[in-house]
Amino acid sequence: MVPDWPGDTIIQAMAERAGSLFVWASTACRFIDAHYHQKRLDILLRGDVNAKPELALDALYKTALEATGVLDDEELCSDFLAIIGIILVAREPISHTTIDALFPLDSPSLYTIQKLGCVLRWSETDPTEPVRLLHPSFADFLMKRPRCNLEALHIDAAVHHKNIAIGCIHHLDGVLKKNISDLILSTTPVEVAHFPAVTVYASIRWVDHVCSITAPDNLPDLLEQFLFRHFLHWLEVMSLLKKPRLTITLMNRLLNWLQVRLLHPLDGSCTSIIFDDRYTYRVKVD
What we know:
- Helices cover 55% and strands 5% of the residues.
- It has 12 helices and 4 strands.
- The protein is elongated and about 70 Å long.
């Protein structure tokens, strides 16, 4: 490669396209550096200079996603939506190994994540390192229809909250059990337990994701089965994680959500949920 590539004229043209947005310049550099440098530079230079910074950034994101081939491969597009959706709605950054545990796909999530180096950051050597957005504007681009005119790539937050909620419940259903840490009676205080990152995330965040769902569909049945089997086991884990106050808050949130959202038809008639003083519920057939 020529030492002064791409030259002052090209750099000036790129600066004009970046306008005042450092994130445009940063994303463009990562996009060009990822693969076929000259080809990708030529792609960016084909676009016109846009006087509106947000539109210029949206055009860059669209160009970057088109270059990954995500729009040309149905399976890759499906994986992209699932993985990016989880990354965007997760209550805290999570690793690609946690994504795989909560929402297993035919291919590891890292396969798709590696194609998105211009908008995501992750560790090549540490699988526990969270995957992070390089800039929140990418989330806005995908989640706001006026900005992303690629309907196939639109991220519906409600859909992905439901996906990750179900993933959390299924994971906990598979790992929770009585005395999960094999504790014995002792006067010595118990140290904070060490659980896999996916178990910690699922334990702390499943209620948040459930309460973000506006159309629960069959989720109440799954939720009921989970709570009957593992409610006390979940309380044990939250206690070992030293989260008693948070547990109370989460239970209140879940009860409020149930009160608003849950319909539990027993014989096809309408029902309502009644809460008693012990924070249990029973179903009343109207």
